[in-house]
Design brief:
EC 5.4.99.-, about 325 residues, alpha+beta, Structural Genomics Hypothetical 15.5 Kd Protein In mrcA-pckA Intergenic Region, Chain A, Pseudouridine synthase, 10-stranded mixed sheet, single chain
Length: about 325
């Protein structure tokens, strides 16, 4: 642990304005427990313009924030290093970058953020690669085993605009998935409510249930094979594991899905060398948060997915 011995005074700029003071402090004071953040606010040790505030106070441009000395966890440079192959390789995965956005073709097998036994994820790795960046936050998430287009905001103002686009369903996401058997031509839309369960192990399992949240996915057949179908999936809502569970619900689970898949189907695909979930975020359409230009980002399939399809075509 390291102790920040001196009182800090921070003036809020336009890009930082609009967020709650507790969220601002959680971002700024990395490694400080959430309970301590709320304690120093409650005790009046955090002051804004010399006055006490509550955790829900939204900071404004020009606010002068007093931050008391706190104990912070040391950064684990031994765990996260720009020299690590996985982290360094992310530079080659960047599809687009400007002052507002960073768009990545996320590799399969890498979590989007640390936690749940993962030392670090995409966002922590990017912060190491971009030490000069004052702000880097995920706009949305992808499952650890899912690859493809991942959007990161480089300004808080950009994050707000992009989150609004997600809420208003102005952002269009398309995925490619290889599913078991022959997907029926008449199944174009699945509307099935999804219920999230957390097991004792901490693992998240999602299932269709009447008490679940409304969920909708559109499906389109891209290519048929003897024992599988390549489909394009467009989620209208953004629930956890939505495409995976909807595919399972249709009795056409996704290849190599270790939670919702079919072992017999996976074994049939062993000849293709497929060892990862065949779910790939292939494209994302959005409105640029600053220029308001309509942008489309396409992420190519990785070599393992390409090889799998090539072998299926030969069969």
């Amino acid at each position: 642990m390291k102790i920040q011995n001196q009182v800090q005074f921070v003036t809020i700029d336009n890009d930082e304005a609009g967020q709650r003071i507790d969220n601002f402090l959680l971002t700024r004071l990395k490694g400080v427990p959430k309970s301590m953040i709320y304690r120093i606010i409650r005790k009046g040790e955090v002051r804004i313009n010399s006055g006490r505030i509550k955790p829900e106070y939204k900071i404004q441009a020009g606010d002068l924030i007093r931050i008391p000395p706190v104990r912070q966890a040391e950064k684990q440079q031994t765990v996260i290093s720009a020299k690590l192959d996985k982290v360094a390789a992310l530079s080659d995965c960047i599809l687009y970058e400007d002052d507002h956005l960073l768009v990545l073709n996320k590799p399969s097998g890498m979590a989007v953020h640390g936690g749940s036994g993962v030392n670090f994820g995409i966002i922590e790795a990017l912060r190491i690669l971009r030490p000069e960046a004052r702000f880097l936050e995920l706009v949305h998430r992808l499952d650890r085993e899912t690859s493809g287009v991942l959007l990161i905001a480089k300004k808080r103002s950009a994050l707000r605009v992009l989150h609004q686009q997600l809420r208003l369903k102005q952002m269009q996401k398309q995925y490619l998935a290889l599913v078991k058997g022959q997907w029926p031509s008449h199944i174009k839309v699945i509307q099935a409510p999804l219920l999230k369960n957390i097991l004792q192990s901490g693992e998240r399992i999602v299932k269709v249930g009447t008490d679940g949240k409304y969920s909708e996915t559109h499906f389109k057949i891209e290519e048929r094979f003897s024992n599988a179908t390549l489909v394009k999936a467009s989620p209208i809502t953004g629930r956890t594991h939505q495409i995976r569970v909807h595919a399972q619900y249709a009795k056409h689970p996704i290849a190599c899905d270790n939670r919702y898949g079919d072992l017999d189907f996976d074994q049939q695909l062993a000849i293709t060398g497929l060892k990862r979930l065949f779910l790939h975020a292939s494209s994302l359409i959005l409105i640029h948060p600053s220029s308001e230009e309509r942008l489309t980002f396409n992420a190519p399939l990785d070599q393992q997915l390409k090889s799998c399809l090539a072998i299926l075509r030969k069969q």
